[in-house]
Amino acid sequence: MWPWNTTHSGEIGTKKKVKRLLSFQRYFHASRLLRGIIPQAPLHLLDEDYLGQARVLVCHDEAFGFYHKTQGSRSGPSLLEAMACTGVCDVETQLNYSCNRSLTVNVCVSNMIHSSAVFCLSFQHMLSKVGMWDFDIFLFDRLTNGNSLVTLLCHLFNTHGLIHHFKLDMVTLHRFLVMVQEDYHSQNPYHNAVHAADVTQAMHCYLKEPKLASFLTPLDIMLGLLAAAAHDVDHPGVNQPFLIKTNHHLANLYQEINQQDWLLDPFQYKNMSVLENHHWRSTIGMLRESRLLAHLPKEMTQDIEQQLGSLILATDINRQNEFLTRLRTHLHNKDLRLEDGHDRHFMLQIALKCADICNPCRVWEMSKQWSERVCEEFYRQGDLEQKFELEISPLCNQQKDSIPSIQIGFMTYIVEPLFQEWARFTGHSALSENMLGHLAHNKAQWKSLLPKPHRGSGGGGGGGSPDLAGQGTEKEAQTVTTGDTP
């Protein structure tokens, strides 16, 4: 039995009222949006009326200590605490309730114990840097107890005024974001929710670029953030060719799609963008299931779904040359009109493509960690292919393909061309120059780590493929992209 607040004038006098509150308890803890709240967290009734409206207080001073006693294998605060520190949860929020009723929840953490208060200071300091390029997403993920994607999106939606503008229900938003976060596979070294959070933070930085920001509408911003957060949702940890040659059901499904039914950004795909199709369709499914946008006009939700699909499909590496050529043409002709919705959408696609592959443009310490993670996924796929007696895919052979050689090829053929054109678009903004500086430094670092060739081996060093940037390697390098990698 929970300890009720008997000091308040609104005493619970009937079993019916108690039953109503317990129903709220079950709904509250069954919700997927607040994973951090433990079932035993005490709720104190502050006031109530007979129409099913209640106001409750989550006592986090008690819950925080209990959480760490019972969750010894985990570190960091609960998701609810993290949300409270963002300023998102200290406002009244409508929570959908059965029988078409609503309950108002006021989340309060004013009586936190000292350790929780210290956490809040650190957490708020990190959030104040969320728009800076040196933002440490790995530290942020530890601070949020593995809830970096949900917490970041809550903060950014609040910062950009999207919750107010679109009249979004906070609880429904949280539920949707947790659904997205949980659909990422945490066992993937690279394609997991932390990668999604990293791409989202990069997208936030790009949306603030002066050349773009002054033209963006709230809808553009929401689309950019949602697409970044969900662009790799439910990624299996292997690439598209692996799915095709193993006759995976996703490959079969999207290869059989009739081109005449292709409504989103028509393009003749060789393999129908298996992973990207799965990512955007899964995202739309979760949007509909959560009913996050159910209150908006039908025409608007259909437009949002189409644009989300188009943005996520743009991350397909098979379309790299298409987008790069189009961007170069626009910049050469100086005919980009960002007042026009089509041109803005195109630049959102470019921004998402940049955010998706921006790891080589981060500071060395973070860039190196991302490189090691993605190569671990490559090697895992290579091990699977070897196990099933399949031909090992390019860059997936740990005995042949070294991390430095993979990264140099990736930077040379994929990253540099795109970010050079992005810098032209932004007018060589401070952020663009910063990214290009990191890119040059990181490329030099990887070159210094290349395996030394053995004498008489014709340059074929023990690490294998030391000169990935050499003749005939562009096709291989194109497989190294976060949109189509293991």
UniProtKB/TrEMBL annotation:
<feature type="active site" description="Proton donor">
    <location>
        <position position="191"/>
    </location>
</feature>
<comment type="pathway">
    <text>Purine metabolism; 3',5'-cyclic AMP degradation; AMP from 3',5'-cyclic AMP: step 1/1.</text>
</comment>
<comment type="similarity">
    <text>Belongs to the cyclic nucleotide phosphodiesterase family. PDE7 subfamily.</text>
</comment>
<dbReference type="GO" id="GO:0004115">
    <property type="term" value="F:3',5'-cyclic-AMP phosphodiesterase activity"/>
</dbReference>
<feature type="binding site">
    <location>
        <position position="356"/>
    </location>
    <ligand>
        <name>Zn(2+) 1</name>
    </ligand>
</feature>
<feature type="binding site">
    <location>
        <position position="356"/>
    </location>
    <ligand>
        <name>AMP</name>
    </ligand>
</feature>
<keyword id="KW-0114">cAMP</keyword>
<dbReference type="InterPro" id="IPR023088">
    <property type="entry name" value="PDEase"/>
</dbReference>
<feature type="compositionally biased region" description="Gly residues">
    <location>
        <begin position="456"/>
        <end position="465"/>
    </location>
</feature>
<dbReference type="GO" id="GO:0007165">
    <property type="term" value="P:signal transduction"/>
</dbReference>
<protein>
    <recommendedName>
        <fullName>Phosphodiesterase</fullName>
        <ecNumber>3.1.4.-</ecNumber>
    </recommendedName>
</protein>
<keyword id="KW-0479">Metal-binding</keyword>
<feature type="binding site">
    <location>
        <position position="231"/>
    </location>
    <ligand>
        <name>Zn(2+) 1</name>
    </ligand>
</feature>
<feature type="binding site">
    <location>
        <begin position="191"/>
        <end position="195"/>
    </location>
    <ligand>
        <name>AMP</name>
    </ligand>
</feature>
<dbReference type="InterPro" id="IPR023174">
    <property type="entry name" value="PDEase_CS"/>
</dbReference>
<dbReference type="InterPro" id="IPR036971">
    <property type="entry name" value="PDEase_catalytic_dom_sf"/>
</dbReference>
<feature type="binding site">
    <location>
        <position position="232"/>
    </location>
    <ligand>
        <name>Zn(2+) 1</name>
    </ligand>
</feature>
<dbReference type="InterPro" id="IPR003607">
    <property type="entry name" value="HD/PDEase_dom"/>
</dbReference>
<feature type="domain" description="PDEase">
    <location>
        <begin position="101"/>
        <end position="453"/>
    </location>
</feature>
<feature type="region of interest" description="Disordered">
    <location>
        <begin position="449"/>
        <end position="486"/>
    </location>
</feature>
<feature type="binding site">
    <location>
        <position position="232"/>
    </location>
    <ligand>
        <name>Zn(2+) 2</name>
    </ligand>
</feature>
<dbReference type="GO" id="GO:0046872">
    <property type="term" value="F:metal ion binding"/>
</dbReference>
<feature type="binding site">
    <location>
        <position position="232"/>
    </location>
    <ligand>
        <name>AMP</name>
    </ligand>
</feature>
<keyword id="KW-0378">Hydrolase</keyword>
<dbReference type="InterPro" id="IPR002073">
    <property type="entry name" value="PDEase_catalytic_dom"/>
</dbReference>
<dbReference type="Pfam" id="PF00233">
    <property type="entry name" value="PDEase_I"/>
</dbReference>
<feature type="binding site">
    <location>
        <position position="195"/>
    </location>
    <ligand>
        <name>Zn(2+) 1</name>
    </ligand>
</feature>
<feature type="binding site">
    <location>
        <position position="407"/>
    </location>
    <ligand>
        <name>AMP</name>
    </ligand>
</feature>
